[in-house]
Amino acid sequence: KIADIFMYNGEPLLELRLKLLYDVVDEFICVEARDVHSGARQKQGLYVEQYAEVLKPYRDKLTILIIEEFPTPDAGTLEALHTSWTHIFPESAQAWYRESYHRNYAADYVRSKYGNGAFVALVCDVDELPDPAIVREVRDSFGTYEKLSTPHHLVMEHFFYNFQWRYVDPFSNAYAVNEQGFRDMEGDLNLMRMSPNSGFRGGGWHGSYFLSVPGIVRKLESYAHREYSTEQFLDPNTIRGCLRSGCNILQQEPVWVLHEHNVSALPPPLQEFHCNLVFLQEHCG
Q1: Residue 241 lies in domain
Q2: Cβ-count burial of 133 within 10 angstroms (0-12 exposed, 13-18 middle, 19+ buried)?
Q3: Which CATH number goes with the domain that contains 122?
Q4: Tens digit of pLDDT for each residue in 187-237?
Q5: Stated pTM of the model
Q6: Are residues 244 and 104 in the same domain?
Q7: Residue 257: CB atoms within 10 Å
Q8: Whether residues 25 and 165 fall in one domain
Q9: Is 149 exposed, middle or buried (0-12, 13-18, 19+ CB in 10 A)?
Q10: What is the number of structural domains in the chain?
Q11: Which residues 6+ apart lie within 8 Å of 75 measured at CB?
């Protein structure tokens, strides 16, 4: 069995993910929270309800888990998080705790449903799209399946804004793991995200900020990087300019290098999504 586990917060890429992987995945496990990681604002309802008609063709394989409320971490938990994740700012520790809780939320469900049976979990963000060919290999090759007692990263091409803009370095946080490796992680699905373990080259496509301009503003207001939720980064005109030119909306150093990509070389479902997304970015907000 192949279980595809991912967090969701209204990203348009969900529909592409379901369409792309429907024939090779046995169960999609989509986890949405009623609140955002930043804690800065309450969401207006659930996106899985708002887009219920879009999800309808895939419901026979789609399990939706809802986090009604994030628990409040104690000071010791936040201190340990900040110590182990050196890249986070102290003032963002609660937001990163919520993200970690969100990612791990499906672990108990998977253990309960699949027990000691043979399965492979794909542990991703919704915008990390595994290549169906890799998933098919994991499903059909016993040798590949056996290797996954050690989690293997899916080394993906990394795109920003849409499939026109490709980052020079690949992205490799998403991973695949079999039931033995899953048990060994003891419910901590974050454990392997940043580790340097081996992986599958050509593992898929990562789409960062594949959203409309208002969607990017919402993302920056919502997610764990609280340092990017200021007016400096939320200006729609600045964001719109970056979508068109491939510049860095986060204004980080060193400056990103994005290359124009030949969209026609991508699989047809990705080309179709790209065209629809660019239209949305040009005409929405």
Answers
A1: 213-283
A2: middle
A3: 3.90.550
A4: 888 877 766 567 899 999 999 999 999 999 888 877 655 555 566 677 888
A5: 0.89
A6: no
A7: 11
A8: yes
A9: middle
A10: 2
A11: none
